[in-house]
Amino acid sequence: MSTGLIIALIVIAAVVVIAAAMTLRARGTRRGPSLKRRFGPEYERAVARHDGDTKAAERELTERVERHGDLRVRSLEPAQREQYEARWTAAQERFVDSPRDAVTEADRLIAEVAAVRGFPDGGQYEEQLAALSVHHAHHVDGYRRLHRAAHLRAEDARDGGQGTEDMREAMVAARALFEELLRPARHDGTGHTGARHEDGRHRAEPNGGSKASGTRGGHLPWAMNRRQAKES
Question: Residue 33, Cα to own-chain centre: how many angstroms?
């Protein structure tokens, strides 16, 4: 092989390597803003969890999308939606006399509905949460707070200063995800696809709920107020 041919092959190989590096860098540059738009507050939480290391956070979020981005969400029958609504309403009403039991039931209910819709089973909480964050990034933290409250022992809750008001706020925050999970899937043929902002969030209605199909008045009723609830 001639010296000229060897030099030509080396130059071609170098050009290919440089082009590949530039392509990867360009993809990385575009990925950051895209992940921010998709994950919103979850992006900031991931960055904080990685002590400000955005590259590590973006790797984690990219892995979530790769694992769960193609998840096919299953539809609920109208009767199922009504049953789940009734169970959530019962949990809210139970909060008045037994906040901790109500929070535990609400946590169990969200896990069940998510599993029925095709997300990982509630027994795999971390994986279920990761999948939900890909498809409901702007509401998943409410579920995280609810789950934490439901699994905090009573004595630990007292030591950590968690009272009835904290549990009430966790349950209110989790309701948004619950309503999202009751929405008809985009492919179920009902024509109800939900009104979304450009960032993927559903528009909030004036009454403070999101406009969920099948819920009365656009949101599920919250039967408990702060003064009624008894300390657990």
Answer: 19
Q: Is the pLDDT of residue 196 over 50?
A: no
Q: What are the angstrom distances between the C-alpha of 172 and each of 61, 68, 136? A: 26, 26, 16
Query: Which tops the pLDDT comparison, 14 or 191?
Result: 14
pTM score over 0.85: no
d(CA 74, CA 26): 36
* 193 vs 171: CA distance, rounded Å: 25
Which class for 57: exposed (0-12), middle (13-18), buried (19 or more C-beta within 10 A)? buried
Share above pLDDT 90 across residues of the chain, in percent, rounded to a whole number? 53
What does the DSSP assignment read for 102-123? Answer: HHHHHHHHHHHHHHHTTSPPGG
40: β partners = none
Q: How many CB atoms lie within 10 A of CB 224?
A: 21
40: alpha, beta or left, given left = phi > 0 and alpha = psi -120 to 50? left
**Degrees (nearest 5) of the Cα angle 183, 71, 125?**
85
- Spell out a b/e string for 117-133, using b for 16 or more CB atoms within 10 Å of the CB, else e: bebbebeebebbbbbbb
Asked whether the predicted pLDDT for residue 2 surpasses 90, the reply is: no
Signed CA dihedral, 203, 213, 133, 112: sign only: positive
> Can you give the pLDDT at residue 21?
58
Question: In the numeric block, which tokens belong to residue 104?
Answer: 């535990």
Residue 230: how many other CB atoms lie within 10 Å: 10
